[in-house]
Amino acid sequence: MSAPAKPRTSVVTCPNCGRRNRVPAAAAGVPKCGNCHNLLPWIADAGDDDFAEVAERSPVPVVVDLWATWCGPCRMVSPALEQLATERAGDIKLVKVEIDAAPRLAQRFEVRAVPTLLVMRDGEVVARQAGAAPVPALRNWLDQALKPNQDGTS
Questions:
Q1: What pTM value is reported for the model?
Q2: Residues 85-113, buried b or exposed e (16+ Cβ, 10 A)?
């Protein structure tokens, strides 16, 4: 009998104190620094097999970056998305999906151009954008996507 798969983690440097922290790809709460206890940016990779656990069951809204290794604009937008994840630590999670390694997700989300960016809340896509954009445009897009509904719900 094989051992159960070990949950994936990434190492994130705390923007407040500089301490390196292991951050799980999926968790019930949001990551905090083990040293200073400030919120950490939550950036995780996901693929066909773990997307539901990592992105759809996230306790916070998720920005999904559907990208490809051969895509120049994808490499340009990645630091902008990481900046937003750092600015919004505790409020959003950035999930990166390399579409050539996750063909079922690329098909499911009908990716026609990369990068394709999604905002998901409670497992549902609430916003979509194709193509790279600078940080201010991405920040505005994210603000609009996460704006509470007219009835006061998020």
A1: 0.91
A2: bbebbeebbbbbbbbeebeebbeebebee
Query: What does the buried/exposed string (b/e) look like for 131-153 if buried means 16 or more CB atoms within 10 Å of the residue's CB?
Result: ebbeeeebbebbeebbeeeeeee
Q: Is 45 helix (H, G, I), strand (E, B) or coil?
A: strand
Judge whether 121 and 61 are in contact, CB under 8 Å: yes
Question: DSSP code of 59?
Answer: S
- Active-site residue numbers? 71, 74
Q: Pull the structure tokens for residue 9.
A: 């983690």
For the chain, give me the number of helices (H) and strands (E)?
Answer: 4, 7
Q: What is the pLDDT of residues 34-90, one digit of tens each?
A: 999 999 999 999 999 999 999 999 999 999 999 999 999 999 999 999 999 999 999
